[in-house]
Amino acid sequence: MNLNFKTLVGALAVLSIASCSKNDVFDAEQAAANEIAQKKSTFENNFVAKYGQVAPTQSWDFSTNQQRLGTRGEGNQIVTTIVDGLDFGKISYPVIGTDKNGNYIYGIKGTKNNTLLSAITKVLPEGTKHQGETVTLVAPSNSFTIYPLTCQGAWTHDLMVKVGNSKPVTVYQKDWIDYSVPYANGTTFSDGSKARMRGLYVEAPIGTPIEIYLDNICEWSQTWGQWQYSRKKAAGTSNGQAIYVEVGNDVKPEGVTLVEGAIVKYIGIEDNPKGDLDYNDVVLAVVGNPDVPEEIKIEKDEYQVPVSVTKRYMMEDLGSTDDFDFNDVVVDVTETTVYTHKVTIVNGVKESDVVIDTKKTQKAVVRHLGGILPFQLTIGETTLPEMGSEATWKTNPDTEYEVKGWNPAQNNVSVTVKSTESQMYNVTNKFPKEGEFPMMFACDPEIEWAAERQGFDFSQFPGYKGE
After folding, report:
1. Exposure class string for 35-69: b at 16+ Cβ within 10 A, else e
2. What is the pTM of this model?
3. Computed from CA positions of residues 388, 393, 394, 395, in that sequence, does the dihedral angle turn out positive or negative?
4. I want to staple 218 with a disulfide (CB 3.0 to 4.6 A). Which of 39, 142, 229, 456 is the partner?
5. Do 108 and 184 contact (CB within 8 A), yes or no?
6. For the segment 334-371, what is each residue's pLDDT rounded down to a tens digit?
7. 3-state secondary structure of 111
8. How far apart are CA 119 and CA 265, in angstroms?
9. Are residues 106 and 180 in contact, defined by beta-carbon separation less than 8 angstroms?
């Protein structure tokens, strides 16, 4: 009887202690939750006081380097003909020498863009041989424009540009057979007509194949007073009859709006693989905004295109409610996709270009740790080791981690902050939706984080709608 009573008292005591422990834990969790809610509310109020109210449509992804990632289909590109082309003003053709047969060699001079014409003449002089390679051009992460500069030779042709697997676009048609001078856009012929060599604006997903070539090449000759012609194989990038030539980045087309840091390259096309191989039969300027298409060599009818997108995420850990430097965690996340293309080239033109293999890798590089609270980053399906607090000073900047499951379009990145008081993971900050208050944002990796306790300048982003 006494034993049972003692046992019952002991059991009730254990239950009472257990009940109190659960309540204590619950109270601690609730207190932490209340504190976090209060901190977030204060953070939002202070944010409004500094930056103004957040617009309902405000996106916190300010990155630009993935703007045209995606399917390389006809619906994801813009190809627009520029009616006027490049203006050379009044054009003349001074004699600059003679060939081996004593015939005059004419140069070209315009009242506009004369520096450019002179530079092209120097880098692609008549009779100087060049060696082309079978290549494909791939679209950069920005738009670019193609401007025909000069064309010469007795062979008529059509200048074609093919973007992805879309129907080729005819930039201009050369229907004159006079080869005595290198004609430029706007040249006036004896019958009063003018050479009309229009430009072409191209915007396509990064990595899209771009082909530039001459088609419908015809050699004209007179037999018994009658003009006759024979059709030739197409000539261009896909069969080694087009090359990039550089004349120096200081030589830029006049009358063309150039973005800061714009790259301008020049393409020389040879219309006859058995001819003089001077690659000046057609000369084009390729103007980037700021980059131009990249050359990739085609080997054994295949080539590989690596396409990368990088975003920089800058984060606050809520260690302070009036701190908007967004430098507590700075991490760059990169996805690299390597596309293997198989091509079929018929009569100098790519008849087909298909992706036969795709390989994708992802990595994260921690660039800066400026907070005082320990935390863990989750990027896609990967949670990185705990960092922050004392580990802040032990973590080497530019530490790289392999990750997987990151979706650049969805920004599936979060940071879980650990309170130093309760030693419990009690707050997780996810990438904000449109109109939400940001605990993090995304931008291009070239953007620098703010100095400690200095509010980040969002006004540098075109997409920022703040006051």
Report:
1. eeeeebeebeeebeeebeebeeebbbbbbebbebb
2. 0.78
3. positive
4. 229
5. yes
6. 999 999 999 999 988 888 999 999 999 999 999 988 87
7. coil
8. 12
9. yes
